[in-house]
Design goal:
The structure holds two protein chains of two kinds.
Chain A (H helix, E strand, L loop, with lengths): L1 E7 L2 E10 L4 H13 L5 E12 L1 H16 L4 E4 L3 H10 L1 H4 L2 E2 L2 H7 L3
Parallel strand pairs in A: 2-3, 3-4, 4-5
Antiparallel strand pairs in A: 1-2
Chain B lengths: L9 H16 L2 H13 L10 H8 L4 H14 L5 H17 L5 H15 L1 H5 L4 H29 L10 H14 L6 E2 L2 E2 H33 L6 H18 L3 H20 L8 H13 L2 H12 L1 H63 L5 H7 L1 H13 L11 H5 L3 H70 L3 E8 L7 E7 L6 H13 L4 E8 L2 E7 L4 E10 L7 E7 L5 E8 L3 H21 L3 H13 L7 E9 L4 E7 L4 E5 L2 E5 L15 E6 L5 E5 L1 H4 L6 H10 L5 H15 L7 E10 L11
Helix pairs in contact in B: 2-3, 2-4, 2-9, 3-4, 3-6, 3-8, 4-5, 5-6, 6-8, 8-9, 9-10, 10-11, 10-13, 10-14, 11-12, 12-13, 15-19, 16-17, 19-20, 19-22, 21-22
The chains are: A alpha/beta, B alpha+beta.
Chain lengths: 113, 776
């Protein structure tokens, strides 16, 4: 599981690669939470184009961060979903909370950047 | 007797039964006969003191029949003067129709006036002192009689009255009946005296129905009338009184016991009182006993209802009042809980908004006081250009960029102490953020409490609605059903009709079931007839001499459950349960906790137990899911659980499926398999979720399949694979289908990548097995 971070204003762009399950969920969680704790992130864009698998533990990490952002009226968006991950998004209704776009540009456009 | 074979005649029987029921229910038949008999009664020197009083007492209820039978009864006695009888009857009829609720004094005056009018021919002739004495006696009997007959009439009509709890009415009825029987005195058939036989039968019936007290009273009254003209009237009264007393005591051993007690009473008085106690010949006694033995149960039931059921009527009224009071109490409680729920929610919302603004202004107040007091630009920054200062600092505090290089607004150019200002602003803002997080937490708690209160309010409101509808709508049903059952001879101790508001009536009955061929089948037929729906006996609990019977709408379908489960590790994170909800529906729950192993198990178990308890308590599925979600979300960790909840209504043939973050479910109907996806968020992590509800109709042979994501997610497996497998399976048992699906999923991959659970609910048409076809 590899995590890369990038800032664009108050937007944190997180690229996750590999498999997100209960073994690796903690890595992604601590990585994002570190940025959130600094208090300088209002929105998050998830680049999941290299994420091949996600289970309920990964879902928990994303929902947990979503809750953090929601307290400050922040948004979480995602793009590049692998079919398996997309299925999980649809099955759990996660796409209603975390809108899914085709690529980063669309995400940024949705945020008015 | 109503049984399965007699069903084709049900329509005719129902009509005949309705006519007979109406005839007997309001005491029309008995009142008419009584009027005729009382009109025949002649006492001593031609006194006829009962026809007009009885007519006065009962005419408002049955004017035509009572009037005709009074005249016919009078004429049958073979004496003239019928026109003089008509003279008072007409004005009495007119007065009583206008004043149906005349008091005792008014009725007595009316009876006396009528009696005087009837005696006009006598008064017109020469009157000696003896005649005046007879007239006075007749008027006294008329005045007394009308009061007794009034009570007897109410007993015959079974009118409810809180004051009629004691023996007053039954005794009035017994007195009236015995007085009426004196009209048949002197009618004999060989060795048989009709009056003696009927009096003997009456005492036996009274003793059997009302016990020793009623038996003794009936015996004494019969003795008084039978002793008229006897040389030792006191012995006759004592003999019948003791016989009635012993018959009542022995009545607990049934008809034979009653007869034995009656015989022992007469024999005992024969020994004690000697020859004068022989008031009943052997032929009359045997005839009365035989008549008593042959008396149908329904007649015995009517007599019993007339004599002893006044208390039950009063208890019935009391229960009704109690229910109404309970409805009011429940409505008030529901209203209170609803108000509490609104208060909690409103307060949290108001405080959330107001608190946010107030706290931010407090941050700036503190900032200006601690850093800027004494500065020459104070007025400009915090008064003249307050908005600008506020905006610049807010942008800085909420900006993601670093402070040491980002604050380049106007404020930085005019502020002499910008570093301290920003440092202090950050410090205060962090404090504010922390406080706000706690406030959010408290608000979430309030939301949860509010939802819980709302849920309790809904449950109470539903309960009050149910009871209120019960009171308003079921009153007639209960009354009619009780009448029907009691007139058939069923001693009803308790009766309630539930579920009418859901059009799913359920009748609970505690009764002493009479002997005979399949009496419960007959009761079931009566219940179905009154409720207008084919109710079926679902429970029969014998409790001593009585039975607790429950009748309900026959279920269309019966459900067969099959479960198969495989854990990825030692412990499966999936939990399942099955229960019957408070409304009689079947609920199937499948929960999948986040992650795997013990942690996932604890998560799913927690959600499942909460859901089960709330459903059992009567919460609706939607309310239960929302409340559980709020409760679990309060924990603040990132654990959650998916929940599949299927509620099957076997009476309606409907299934409601609620999905919260769960894998798709499947409905197999014949060769077709429908995938049901809810796309609802899992519970326990995000507050305020709205569970998705899918409604489907079910029919015989359908299968509902709930699976956890371990089945649909795996090597070469998905929803289509599951649907294909189910489509290929035939009409196998639920357990077989569950195991086969799990085994096939297992064989497809080397090992499950997640915990896997399959729940199969097979729908089968319920066996049509009416209770009345079974031997009881």
């Amino acid at each position: 599981m590899k995590v890369a971070k990038n800032h664009r204003g108050d937007i944190l762009i997180v690229a996750a690669a590999g498999e997100l399950d209960h073994h690796t969920a903690a890595v992604l969680k601590s990585s994002i939470q570190e940025e959130l704790d600094k208090g300088r992130v209002r929105h998050i864009i998830l680049d999941l184009s290299a994420l091949t698998f996600m289970d309920s533990s990964g879902l928990g990490v994303l929902l947990g961060r979503y809750k953090e952002l929601a307290k400050w009226q922040g948004n979480m968006l995602a793009f590049g979903l692998h079919p398996l991950v997309e299925k999980l998004f649809l099955m759990t209704g996660l796409n209603k909370l975390i809108p899914v776009y085709a690529n980063l540009d669309e995400c940024l456009r949705a945020m008015g950047v | 007797m109503i049984n399965k074979e007699s069903l084709p005649l049900a329509g005719f029987r129902s009509l005949a039964g309705t006519v007979l029921d109406k005839l007997f229910r309001n005491g029309i038949f008995a009142t008419t006969i009584m009027a005729a008999l009382l009109a025949r009664v002649v006492i001593g020197e031609g006194l006829r003191p009962f026809a007009i009083p009885f007519f006065t007492a009962v005419v408002p209820v049955h004017p035509v029949l009572v009037g005709l039978s009074t005249i016919l009864g009078y004429l049958s006695a073979g004496t003239g003067g019928a026109l003089w009888l008509l003279l008072p009857l007409v004005p009495i009829f007119l007065i009583r129709i206008r004043a149906p609720t005349l008091g005792a004094g008014g009725m007595a005056l009316l009876a006396i006036g009528g009696q005087i009018a009837f005696r006009i021919p006598t008064l017109a002739g020469p009157m000696i002192g003896y005649d005046w004495m007879l007239l006075l006696m007749e008027l006294s009997l008329a005045a007394t009689g009308v009061l007794i007959f009034n009570q007897a009439g109410m007993a015959l009509r079974q009118e409810a009255s809180a004051s009629a709890e004691g023996l007053e009415r039954p005794l009035a009825l017994v007195v009236t009946a015995v007085v009426a029987l004196t009209s048949i005195a002197g009618i004999e058939f060989g060795p048989f005296s009709l009056l003696a036989i009927v009096v003997g039968w009456l005492i036996l019936m009274a003793a059997s129905a009302g016990g020793s007290g009623t038996g003794a009273c009936a015996g004494i009254i019969a003795g008084v009338l039978a002793g008229y003209g006897h040389i030792y009237p006191a012995v006759v009264v004592a003999t019948f009184g003791v016989a009635g007393l012993l018959a009542g005591i022995f009545s607990q051993w049934g008809r034979w016991g009653t007869m034995a007690g009656f015989a022992v009473g007469i024999l005992a008085m024969l020994v004690y009182g000697g020859y004068p106690a022989v008031t009943l010949s052997l032929a009359d006694f045997c005839s009365a006993s035989l008549l008593f033995l042959l008396t149908p149960t329904s007649i015995r039931g009517i007599v019993k209802r007339l004599l002893v059921n006044q208390n039950a009527e009063w208890v019935w009224e009391y229960q009704l009042r109690l229910r109404r009071a309970m409805v009011l109490k429940l409505q008030k409680l529901a209203h209170i809980f609803s108000r509490l729920a609104i208060s909690f929610r409103d307060n949290s919302g108001v405080e959330r908004m107001a608190g946010s603004n107030l706290q931010m202004s407090r941050v700036f107040d503190q900032l200006s006081c601690s850093v800027c007091v004494g500065c020459i630009n104070y007025k400009r920054c915090w008064e003249k250009e307050l908005y600008s200062t506020y905006s610049q600092l807010m942008d800085y505090l909420t900006s993601p960029q670093e402070t040491d290089c980002s604050f380049d607004g106007l404020l930085s150019r005019r502020c002499h102490n910008i570093e301290q200002l920003l440092s202090q602003a950050e410090s205060l803002y962090r404090q504010y953020a922390s406080e706000r997080r706690w406030a959010e937490k408290v608000n979430e708690c309030r939301d949860v409490v509010s939802e819980q209160l709302r849920g309790v309010s809904d449950v109470l409101a539903g309960l009050s609605k149910q009871v209120r509808l019960d009171v308003n709508c079921r009153q007639d049903l209960e009354g009619e059903l009780a009448q029907r059952l009691m007139s058939w001879g069923v001693e009803v101790l308790d009766l309630s009709v539930l579920g009418t508001e859901r059009n799913l009536p359920q009748v609970s009955l505690q009764a002493k079931v009479p002997a005979g061929e399949n009496p419960i089948g007959a009761i079931q037929a009566m219940v179905s007839d009154v409720l207008g729906q084919p109710l079926q006996l679902v429970e029969n609990l014998p409790t001593g001499e009585t039975n607790k019977l429950t009748f309900a709408i026959p279920v269309k379908y019966q459900l067969e459950l099959g479960v198969a489960q495989a854990a990825k590790d030692d412990v499966s994170g999936d939990c399942f349960n099955h229960l019957q909800t408070a409304t009689g529906k079947h609920a199937y729950l499948l929960s999948d906790g986040m992650g795997k192993g013990n942690r996932a198990r604890a998560e799913s178990d927690q959600a499942l137990v909460l859901a089960r308890d709330m459903l059992e308590a009567g919460f609706s599925a939607e309310t239960a899911i929302k409340a559980i979600n709020s409760l679990l979300a309060l924990r603040g960790n990132e654990s959650f659980a998916s929940l599949d909840l299927a509620v099957v209504d076997v009476a309606k043939g409907q299934i409601d499926i609620y999905k919260t973050g769960a894998a798709p479910s499947f409905l197999k109907s014949g060769g077709e398999v429908e995938e049901i996806s809810g796309a609802g968020l899992p519970i326990g992590i995000v507050p305020g979720i709205e569970p998705r509800q899918e409604v489907r109709c079910i029919r015989d042979g359908d299968y509902l399949v709930l699976v956890s994501d371990g089945i649909v997610d795996g090597h070469d497996r998905n929803e289509d694979w599951v649907a294909t497998q189910l489509r290929a399976m035939g009409n196998v048992g639920a357990s077989v289908m569950a195991k086969q699906l799990l085994n096939r999923a297992d064989k497809l991959g080397a090992k499950f990548t997640d915990d896997a659970t399959v729940i199969v609910v097979r729908v089968r048409e319920a066996k049509k097995n009416p209770y009345w076809s079974q031997a009881v």
